[in-house]
Design a protein that fits this description.
- By secondary structure, the chain is mainly α.
- The chain has two domains: 1-33, no CATH class; 35-66.
- 71% of the residues lie in helices and 0% in strands.
- The chain is built from four helices and no strands.
- It has helices at 2-16, 18-26, 31-34, 36-61.
- The N and C termini lie far apart (54 Å).
């Protein structure tokens, strides 16, 4: 069983983390490039947030939401 976990550790440390090791070495040269994955995650979150707001506005414009105070059990 120990060999299985050591194999998983080897896979992650020596294979799957290669891109992140390269980004860590790049940090001394360019901070913006070293934080590339952070910028990608930030862009994904902003895109999801704006899509969500667009969908909320669409439902609000169509009056599809039940705004009665008794519509939601946790409000009454």
């Amino acid at each position: 069983m120990k060999e299985l976990f050591e194999g998983i550790a080897w896979l992650f440390e020596n294979v799957l983390f290669i891109p992140y090791d390269a980004l860590r070495k790049l940090q001394l040269e360019s901070w913006f490039l070293a934080n590339f994955m952070n910028w990608v995650f930030i862009l994904v979150v902003f895109a999801a947030f704006f899509y969500w707001m667009k969908q909320l506005k669409t439902f609000n414009d169509n009056n599809e939401e039940n705004r009665d105070p008794k519509a939601h059990s946790f409000l009454g």
